[in-house]
Amino acid sequence: MKGKKTDLDEHACAIARSLGAIGDWWSLLIIRDALGETRRFGEFQKSLGLAKNILSARLQKLVERGILATAPASDGSAYKEYVLTPKGEKLYIVIAALWQWGEEFCFAPGELSYDMVDKDTRKPFQPLELKARNGAVLGPRDMQPWPRPASKVKRKAASSR
Amino acid sequence: MKGKKTDLDEHACAIARSLGAIGDWWSLLIIRDALGETRRFGEFQKSLGLAKNILSARLQKLVERGILATAPASDGSAYKEYVLTPKGEKLYIVIAALWQWGEEFCFAPGELSYDMVDKDTRKPFQPLELKARNGAVLGPRDMQPWPRPASKVKRKAASSR
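Predict the joint structure of the above. Result:
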């Protein structure tokens, strides 16, 4: 599966297209914060330390892509709040995968001072596992892109045949 | 958990640190290709359509971060090959999570022409699920960072107390 197009939004690959939709690393950190209690511009800014114009552009893009939506302030004040849409919330699996990888490979022993836990039990969750339909656990070399049956794919034009 | 530092490599958050280690979106596409059959500079270039100097810098960074390693060509030719280390391979969970999200949200019906399948059965794998230790499936609002017990964390200096 080739991915030559430099506009990620037009890639045939769902990985590339996800990356195009999300925007950049900072956008993922915005999503991380929004999965917690962060809602307002000033709160995102305080957490991320981004310049106002950059943060503003990132938030705007995430709204355009349907990952965040704006809502009136929950306390009735004049502030606008940014909340994850169901589409945006679903990125929690990507966020959790990045956490687990970082935890395993990016810290010296004893350096990481937080665990990512589930709210109920406050215990770290299980490592994410990729499983085949029959339940077999899949390793990094077990996955590959495979053309869909033609009946499932809409043909665009003669040129794409 | 605050993450003000603009150098992602020094963040207390494992998500931010993962992002710092990986580099940028293009680096994830390099890793995607390396999980397949792509090994050589020219092959990555053909797949990604990146300028040589940019691709070269990305590959170099991934080698420095221990995500890729260089190896002599498997066919005995003079070409250098880039292969994923075990640390790099483990990013397949992140890649799979991005695929599944992109598949669900970033394509019109009938537009996606590939499935990501397991090599054995050529069937799409199960959606990734985040599970608590007790096996409960966790939703996007069920996770939160939580301070580790002090006994597990090394104190750096008086200033960090």
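Confidence is low (pLDDT under 50) at residues 1-5, 157-161 of chain B.
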